[in-house]
Write a structure and sequence with these properties.
Shape: globular
Structural class: alpha/beta
Strand content: 25-35%
Helix content: 25-40%
Radius of gyration: 17 Å
Number of strands: 12
Order of helices and strands: EHHEEHEHEHEHHEEEEEHHEH
Strand order of the largest sheet: 4-1-2-3-5-6-7
Bound molecules: zinc ion
Distance between the termini: 23 Å
Length: 277
C-alpha cells in the first residue's frame, strides 16, 4: 500500500507538553506555565492508497488557525500554549492534490482524535465517510468539549461522523480494535491516553506494520521511553498505551508514525521500523 505523508503546516507547543511533568492537574498547569517552546513541529496527516478506496488518517489544521480570532481567547491553553502556522496552500486539500489524490475521491477519513490540528481539514471531505470513536465525539462536544480544549464550533455544518464503539477484539497487545477494510489489512486500534477516545490506525503489509499513531507520543524516542505528554487527561492510561505500543514494536516490525514527530516523514521514506535507527 502506498502511504503518503501530508504536512499541513507546523505547530509549536510548550516543551512540557511534549514531555509532561508533575502529577494530576499540575501537569496541565506546568504545560501552560512553561516558558520554553518546542521548535516548529510538523502537523501530519496521512493518505493510504488502498484497493478498496483511499483512506485519510487525520485532516491536519486549517489556515484559519493562524489568523487571529480562531481560538477562544478565554481558554488559557490556546492563549498561552500553542501557536499554529498554516497557509492555505498547506491545507490537506492541496496537500492531497499534490500527491495526485482528489479529496472527493477519499472513501474514509479516520480521526485519531478531535483536537483542532487533526480535525481542522474536515470541511474538505463532504463525500467521505468520517469515523471517530463515540467516546471522543462525546468528550469533544458541547461546552464541556470546549473546556477540554476542543473546537466543536469549527466542525463543518452538519458534521455527522460514524461513531465507533470499538469491540473487545484484541490485536497484539491492544485490547480493542476493528478492521476497516474487507481485506482486514487496515485496523483501527484503541490507544487512549492523550484523549479518552484516541485511536491509531495500523496497516498490515508483507514486511510488517505501519502504525499511524496520532498523538500517542510526540516522537518515537518518547514512546520508547514511555514519556507521557503534558496534556493527557489520564496519564496512567496514556502510560499503559505507550507500554502496549512498545510491546507491539518489540514483537513485530513496526514503522511508528506520530503526527508531530520531526523524523516521521524521513522514516516513512525509507520504511525504517522502530529499533533500527
Ligand atoms: Zn492532540
Amino acid at each position: 500500500m502506498r502511504v503518503h505523508a501530508l504536512q499541513t503546516g507546523t505547530v509549536r507547543v510548550k516543551t512540557r507538553q511534549r514531555e509532561g511533568a508533575g502529577r494530576g492537574p499540575a501537569r496541565a498547569i506546568n504545560t501552560m506555565r512553561d516558558r520554553e517552546w518546542t521548535e516548529p513541529l510538523p502537523i501530519l496527516a496521512w493518505a493510504i492508497e488502498h484497493p478498496e478506496g483511499v483512506i485519510v488518517v487525520d485532516t491536519g489544521e486549517t489556515a484559519r488557525a493562524s489568523a487571529p480570532g480562531y481560538f477562544p481567547r478565554w481558554h488559557p491553553y490556546f492563549r498561552l500554549a500553542v501557536r499554529m502556522s498554516v497557509t492555505p496552500e498547506q491545507e490537506i486539500g492541496p496537500a492531497l492534490r499534490a500527491v495526485g489524490i482528489e479529496p472527493q475521491d477519499v472513501r474514509w477519513v479516520v480521526l485519531t482524535h478531535l483536537h483542532t490540528d487533526h480535525a481542522g481539514g474536515l470541511a474538505q471531505f463532504p463525500n467521505s465517510e468520517v469515523l471517530v470513536t463515540r467516546t471522543e465525539y462525546e468528550t469533544a462536544s458541547g461546552f464541556m468539549g470546549k473546556l477540554r480544549g476542543y473546537l466543536p464550533d469549527s466542525w463543518p455544518a452538519g458534521f455527522a461522523p460514524r461513531l465507533l464503539d470499538l469491540p473487545s477484539e484484541p490485536f497484539g497487545p491492544f485490547a480493542e480494535s476493528m478492521t476497516l477494510t474487507d481485506a482486514g489489512d487496515v485496523r483501527i486500534v484503541a490507544t487512549p491516553g492523550h484523549t479518552n477516545g484516541h485511536v491509531s490506525v495500523v496497516l498490515a503489509e508483507e514486511e510488517g506494520f505501519v502504525f499511524l499513531a496520532g498523538d500517542t507520543s510526540y516522537s518515537e524516542e518518547l514512546m520508547i521511553a514511555g514519556v507521557v505528554d503534558g496534556v493527557a487527561p489520564n496519564p496512567d492510561q496514556a502510560r499503559e498505551t505507550l507500554d502496549r505500543i512498545r510491546r507491539f514494536t518489540q514483537e513485530e516490525r513496526v514503522l511508528y508514525l506520530p503526527a508531530h514527530d520531526i523524523r516521521a516523514v524521513g522514516r516513512l521514506a525509507v520504511r525504517q521500523p522502530v529499533g533500527t535507527a
